[in-house]
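To the wet lab folks,

You asked to see what we're planning to order before we commit. Fair enough. Below is the target structure as C-alpha cells, and below that is the sequence we designed to fit it. If anything looks off to you, flag it before the synthesis order goes out.
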C-alpha cells in the first residue's frame, strides 16, 4: 500500500472495568474499525454470482495497517478480528473486542468529587513517520454498547480526533485519540465510609 493511504478510524467504548489511580492505569473493553479504499480489490458482482462482500480473518494475506494502541500496557483479545471487503474496494478491519490496560495520569486533589481524563492513543508503532492520512468517522466514540461502571460515571460525549505531530526534522505524523472523561460517583465512597449503629 502507498505510504499516504487514507485510513478511516471508528472507536467503540464498551466498558470501563477499573480505575487504578495508585499505579496510573485504567482497564477497559473497547473495539475499533480501521478502513480504507484499494483499487486492487474492486470487482463487478454481476460477474461473480452477485457476490458483493467477502469476509476474511486478519491472519490471511490481506494488507492491514500497523496501527496499534500506543499507550496500552496489556491487551487481551476477547473475539477474533475480521476483515470485510466490499466490491467497490472498501476494506474494513474490525478489531476484536479487547480488554486493555492503559496508562493514565490522575489528579485526585478533589477526591471523592474528582473528574479524570484518560486517552486511547492509536498510531503506527513501527513506522511513525509513514504518512497515513488518518480520518475519524465521527467526532464522537460509539457508545451504543457501553455498560456503566458503578464507581465512575462516563461523561458524554467521548471526543475522538486526529492530531498531527511534527518532529524536530519537520516531518509529520498523525495519531488518533479518544478522550475519555470520568466522574467519580462520590456516594459510593460516602456511604462506604459511614458506620451505622446496630438496632
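Sequence we intend to order:
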Amino acid at each position: 500500500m502507498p505510504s499516504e493511504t487514507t485510513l478511516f478510524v471508528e472507536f467503540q467504548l464498551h466498558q470501563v472495568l477499573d480505575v487504578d489511580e495508585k499505579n496510573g492505569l485504567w482497564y477497559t473493553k473497547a473495539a475499533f474499525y480501521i478502513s480504507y479504499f484499494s483499487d486492487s480489490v474492486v470487482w463487478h458482482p454481476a460477474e461473480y454470482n452477485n457476490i458483493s462482500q467477502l469476509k476474511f480473518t486478519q491472519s490471511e494475506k490481506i494488507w492491514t495497517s500497523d496501527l496499534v494502541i500506543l499507550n496500552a500496557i496489556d491487551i487481551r483479545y476477547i473475539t477474533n478480528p475480521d476483515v470485510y471487503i466490499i466490491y467497490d474496494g472498501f476494506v474494513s478491519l474490525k478489531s476484536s473486542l479487547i480488554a486493555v490496560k492503559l496508562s493514565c495520569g490522575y489528579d485526585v486533589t478533589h477526591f471523592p468529587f474528582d473528574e479524570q481524563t484518560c486517552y486511547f492513543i492509536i498510531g503506527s508503532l513501527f513506522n511513525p513517520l509513514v504518512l497515513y492520512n488518518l480520518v475519524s468517522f465521527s467526532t464522537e466514540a460509539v457508545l451504543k454498547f457501553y455498560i456503566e461502571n458503578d464507581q465512575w460515571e462516563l461523561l458524554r460525549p467521548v471526543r475522538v480526533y486526529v492530531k498531527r505531530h511534527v518532529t524536530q526534522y519537520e516531518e509529520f505524523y498523525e495519531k488518533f485519540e479518544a478522550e475519555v472523561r470520568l466522574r467519580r460517583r462520590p456516594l459510593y465512597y460516602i456511604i462506604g465510609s459511614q458506620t451505622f449503629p446496630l438496632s
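Structural context that might help your review: The domain at 6-193 is CATH 2.70.170.10 (Acetylcholine Binding Protein; Chain: A,). The chain has one domain: 6-193.

Thanks,
Computational group
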